[in-house]
Design goal:
This protein is an all-alpha fold. 68% of the residues lie in helices and 0% in strands. It contains four helices and no strands.
């Protein structure tokens, strides 16, 4: 029975590592796709920008990738148990089970982890 429990523990650790790698790859994908989109094709003329009113940017809705990036970073920094407890507080065993309406509140609570 000792070998099976050791194998089980190692498989759990392997799963955590895989989830961390997925979080990192998602973060990098988002980072690089965002930077490619940010490059302006042409600088606007000063006269044009004065004549046009600049619209206020709308608040970007949080995505699963945004929240996963923050939670992955917290987990990598040694706060895995705190992240897991936070997920359980929102009634989920994993991030993908959490309602997207709760992302903002979840992220606000996650930002506090490790800063106290």
């Amino acid at each position: 029975m000792g070998k099976m429990s050791k194998l089980s523990a190692e498989l759990d650790e392997l799963r955590k590592c895989g989830e961390t790698l997925i979080g990192i790859s998602d973060t990098l994908r988002e980072l690089f796709s965002t930077r490619a989109e940010e490059k302006p094709a042409k600088e606007p003329k000063k006269e044009d920008s004065m004549a046009e009113e600049t619209p206020k940017p709308e608040k970007k809705a949080l995505s699963l990738i945004d929240v996963r990036a923050v939670l992955s970073e917290k987990s990598r920094n040694g706060y895995t148990a705190d992240v897991k407890a936070l997920l359980l507080k929102y009634g989920a065993d994993k991030l993908s089970d959490i309602n997207s309406k709760d992302y903002e509140a979840l992220l606000a609570e996650a930002e506090v982890i490790g800063n106290a």
